[in-house]
Amino acid sequence: MLRKALLAKIHRATVTHCDLDYVGSITIDADLLRATGLRPNEAVLIADCDNGNRFETYIFEGEVGSGVVGINGAAAHLTAVGHKIIIMAFAQMTEQELDQHETKVVVADENNRIAQRLTYPSTLAEPQPA
Questions:
Q1: Which pTM was predicted?
Q2: Which position among 58, 66, 120, 122 bears the catalytic label?
Q3: Residue 83 and residue 74: Cα distance in Å, rounded?
Q4: Domains along the chain?
Q5: Are 128 and 118 in contact (CB under 8 A)?
Q6: Active site residue 22
Q7: How far is CA 17 from the centre of its chain?
């Protein structure tokens, strides 16, 4: 059996531009991609913290160090410049893979630079004695 788990997350990135006339996707600064292990063309779920919209798209690699987080194509209707978003990728894993998995998380600052790096283990903590 495969289980769906959070692979990586960019938390509270700021939308830098919306381009309705672009082909589609989300353009993300390559520094953020490298820090999370996310890759170009990978599917991601976007959650807009300001209006509650959620949508799925795929990643385009943005210029290193640019701080770009741009929403392209029809999805640009679902957010706005300055909105805070959460970018999430999921993976199908076996029980054994899930036991070894740690989700990579980057918390972005107001300029879409790495403010904090976190990992979330995919295992339950051992119970504490009473």
A1: 0.94
A2: 58
A3: 16
A4: 3-121 (2.40.40.20)
A5: no
A6: no
A7: 17
